[in-house]
Amino acid sequence: MGDCEMTNNVHLRVLLIATCALLLGAAPPTNEATIALISKVILDVTRKEVGKDWQPAKRGETLSSGERVKTGDKATAIIKFKDNSMLRVREKTEVLLGGSQQGKSFSKSTGVERGVIGFSIKKQQPGEEFRFSSPTSVASIRGTSGQFGVADSSDKLIVLDGLVRLTNKISLQYVDVSGGFTGISGRDGKVRVRPSTPEEKLAAQLASRTGDRDSKLDIELDNGSGNKKNIEIKFK
């Protein structure tokens, strides 16, 4: 058999195998690099893939490790990870997403250079972790909800439930922040914990909502003359 005829036979066998796989309904290959997707976009939200420029973000787009998401004025983005952990990226916030898969263990990280994120993190399995980091702090989460904010002078971690270890990168001091408490990590290396104020708890509850629908608050006003008016306030 000549070389040309042998090559043609090999190509034919490859074609037959591929055709049979399609007829049997073989699943297409999945992108194992995907760690999350953009669940919701409100107003000015952009994303930056590795090695590319910033582009407008769209609902349903998948995200890989090393990508960035940024929100503009009054904008919000909801990001959901493969394990259903959720981030609500508030306005004027930029985050760097990271993730690695080893067997069934899926570890995740979110770097925050500036701004505020709400979070609802699913309980992490053995060998897994979820970390928030900033230039000043690292928050190690096993499964909880709350809010993490990065400002000029300090970082603030508000925990609604569960337990989070907040470590200051400068001094390496840390505190364990439980539900109902707020951790403060300063640029001076100091880290402390105190009870959350009612305003902080409300802000964290609004920021960590897992639903995609806007929350509404109905208020009934009385002008003093017996005339009442209902006002609906939407939280995004």
Q: Your description of this structure?
A:
- By secondary structure, the chain is mainly beta.
- Helices cover 13% and strands 50% of the residues.
- The protein is built from 2 helices and 19 strands.
- The chain has helices at 3-23, 198-207, and strands at 34-42, 45-48, 54-56, 62-64, 68-71, 76-81, 86-89, 94-102, 105-120, 130-133, 137-141, 145-150, 154-161, 163-168, 174-178, 181-186, 191-195, 215-222, 228-235.
- The strands form 2 sheets. It has a 17-stranded mixed β-sheet that branches. A two-stranded antiparallel ribbon has the order 18-19.
- A hairpin with a 4-residue loop joins strand 6 (76-81) and strand 7.
- The N and C termini lie far apart (71 Å).
- Mean pLDDT is 79; it is low at 3-31, 212-223 and 230-236.
Question: What attributes characterize this protein structure?
Answer:
single chain, 236 residues, 13% helix, disordered C terminus, two-stranded antiparallel ribbon, 50% strand, globular, 17-stranded mixed sheet, mainly beta
